Amino acid sequence: MRPPLTVVMRTVAIATALFASLSIAASAQETTAEPDPDAVSEIDQPPTVDMEELASRIIYPEDARKAGLEGQVIIRVLLDEEGNPVEFRIDHSDADIFVDPAINAVTSMKFEPARKQGRPVECWISVPIKFKLVE
User: β-pairing, 114-116 with 85-93?
Assistant: First the structure.
């Protein structure tokens, strides 16, 4: 059996017409209190998501496309024990025009929840969504 893994940062990326990456800075607590979004604690398995599905749900704003705008939005998302996004915070956005499409894509996803000692747990993850024009 492997020792518990402290998740500090994990990046998975996929290149499609739109580029999305998922960085995980997960925090999990065994209590029923809502986890602190800034805390990092030990978990055995970080949450995961189908990156191709996430990328397919990102809608590039037409006005941003016409203006040649690119950027990134970093969303911190609280996942419940079933992997459902239940709360979010915008940590960073290069342009307001990208915020709503990023929120819509991330909050519409079902994640595989984090696990601690084999049990699913709530955790916060940071999800950077990159908007990049492709020729």
Answer: unpaired
Hey, is 107 helix, strand or coil?
helix
- Residue 94: domain span: 5-131
Q: What are the strands of the beta sheet with 71-79, ordered from one edge?
A: 11-15, 19-28, 123-131, 71-79, 85-93
Closest C-alpha among 49, 50, 53, 55 to residue 18: 55
Task: For residue 74, give both structure tokens.
Answer: 């970093």
Stated pTM of the model: 0.72
Each residue's pLDDT tens digit in the chain (135 positions)?
A: 333 322 222 222 222 223 333 444 444 444 456 666 666 557 899 999 999 999 999 999 999 999 999 999 999 999 999 999 999 999 999 999 999 999 999 999 999 999 999 999 999 999 999 999 987
Structural domain count, the chain = 1
Query: CATH number of the domain that 77 lies in?
Result: 3.30.2420.10
